[in-house]
Specification:
The chain has 230 residues and is of the alpha+beta class. The chain is 28% helix and 24% strand. It is globular.
Length: 230
Amino acid sequence: MRFKFNKIFFASLLFFLPVQGQTGVRPFKIDATELTQELQKQSHGDGIKLVWWIPNEFWMASSSKPGDMDELITALEPYVFVAVIDGSVSRLGAFSYRPEEEIRKNTKIFDANGSFYLPLDSKMISGDVTNVISMIKPILSNALGEMGKNFVFLVFPKKGKDGKPVVLPTKPGKFRIELGHEDFFYHLPLASISPKLKCKNDSELFPSNFQYCPFHGSALVAQDTSITGK
């Protein structure tokens, strides 16, 4: 399969995130900053440690028009796609990065039930996904230099040991990615691609991955986005 998008389009998706709501698909605006913050998790300790979960919803939201990313989305559908960088900084400010082999051994996904999954071996990944990774790597390297060169792309199975999806970006749930001795948590659904929920007491809006109003304790309810446009 030959993907129809080019490297310039890929670069714009990866770094400028031109995310917009699509008329007829989502009745609300998607905030690019919120989407990025949800998908990219960064360590607050020493060094550079970044986990970037890239679900198909990211590509759907980034598409300039419906159908642009269908081939890519189809290729990635059987997998959980994650980009990782793990580095350290010396006292003199020099950066060093852990090799891909080490990162692969020390990265796991844990589903809501506590079952964990390791990155798939390259032989278990489709040729289309391998080609996608080969396209992204030089773009990151050219745009971010040594840091971009050391991004590692990991592909995990989409279905868990019970036959159910490990993660469902638009459904309530949670999962975490373990990188070394650090955990990076994701709470679902992704709030940035879902309408906010409303407190029935005072109509204050909260992210869709909240179940209850933190002030009143009451269950949040759906808002009428066709009227509010939020």
